[in-house]
Amino acid sequence: MPAVDAQPGPFSFDLDSTALVVIDMQRDFLLPGGFGESLGNDVSQLRRTIEPLAALMAAWRAAGLPLIHTREGHKPDLSDCPPAKLNRGAPSMRIGDPGTFGRILIQGEYGHDIVDELQPIEGETVIDKPGKGAFYATELSDILEKDGIKSLVVTGVTTEVCVHTTVREANDRGYECLVLADCVGSYFPEFQQVGLKMIAAQGGIFGWVAESPSVIAAIQE
Amino acid sequence: MTAMIGPVTANPYRWPYDGSVPVSKTALICIDWQVDFCGKGGYVDSMGYDIELTRAGLPATAKLLDHVRGLGMLVIHTREGHDPDLSDLPPNKRWRSAQIGAEIGADGPCGRILVRGEPGWEIVPEVAPVAGEVIVDKPGKGAFYATNLDLVLRTHGITHIILTGITTDVCVHTTMREANDRGYECLILSDCTGATDPSNHTAALHMVTMQGGVFGCVSTSDDVIAATSEPSNRPAHHPQAD
Fold first, then answer.
1. Which residue in A39, A171, A206 is closest to B211 by CB distance?
2. What is the mean pLDDT of each run of 10 residues along chain A (221 residues)?
3. Would the CB atoms of A191 and B178 count as touching at under 8 Å?
4. Considering its fold, how many domains does chain B have in total?
5. Which of B150, B136, B178 is nearest to A172 (CA)?
6. Where in this chain does the record put each Isochorismatase-like domain (chain A) (predicted)?
7. Fewer CB atoms near the end CB (10 Å): N or C, chain B?
8. Per CATH, the architecture of A3-220 is what?
9. H-helix or E-strand containing A101?
10. Which residues in chain B touch residue A191, judged by CB atoms under 8 angstroms apart?
């Protein structure tokens, strides 16, 4: 059974029951000129994850292991967007407004899709989610159960929002989560650091934290 | 007419987003004020953490409870714990608790750790439920997963949630995230929460306020109390307080 050095202790996983989850690596969040940047965020904080993640995904695919992508977004008629999410804080740009890459966070728009470097390939699962967590109001639980998945290697953006929410949901459901520090990103360095710290606190209250090269080495052994 | 709540002085916007809300559509959720998390000899104490940090929010929460009970607001208490046979305890959660010397289900000074029905699992007297209040027993950190909380909230017509409890970064945050994804408008109270690591308490509150309130808003119990009024002494849309 492969094992990697991690916080708060070694993380071992079975290749037959582990999936790689890539959260919300969408153009709206990552591309210069997109929605994320228009809110005043520094997208380079997220873009540094693309290269290590591409390497990890290549190794994961080469090993023939399951890979799941998620995308946050809403239906064009916004029927699945709670009013509180749409209107709170009187934002200058709202979900559904026209943006540089189409209507912001709307399914089917260019900006809603995954960045070119990390596009899903045939046979990989793509989960469309209306919230921050990938379990609520999606088919993710059913897919993991059907495929006998017990452990998740979690990557994507942003660390303290969608990655954290999904890891918390997964942890309550009994999945073992390994979060890869170099493959998750936050617009805010402070939250990147504390977000990772919270996962491994109290003996790993939400899971484990490691770096992607050790996972690549473990699956290539 | 019912009493109203809001706008409450809060960060990053005056809560709620829709100006004000009838108390009848608002719930106060008190998360895991259990002996195991803030009592002597409980789980958190057994792990070696300072329980004064998790007890810090008790006086303000007790005062707020007194206030909202007078208004007739729905009060919901949650308790984290597992069946005595541990059939609802994921193996990794058990393993990790054992690694840090406080295995769930093992005997401790307050009975079996985090097991339903044991003294350590009870809510501490300062904020104990009164007759008619809802209690939700949850096996995880979040109060929505594997519980009837969403059904209880929808049955009562609740759209807005005020959160107190422990710990800020773990169970309170997980529940707030779940509630937020489900469309509830959430307010977390900085003086009615607490964490085993003070820096995690601060960071968790700060996270809520980013990006226009990604999970809702942060305020204090005094600000909530000040922004609650009977219709008779308050003109519409012009709160006297704050």
1. A39
2. 95 97 98 92 97 98 97 97 87 89 97 98 97 98 97 98 98 97 97 97 95 97 84
3. no
4. 1
5. B178
6. 18-205
7. N
8. 3-Layer(aba) Sandwich (3.40)
9. none
10. 203, 206-207, 210
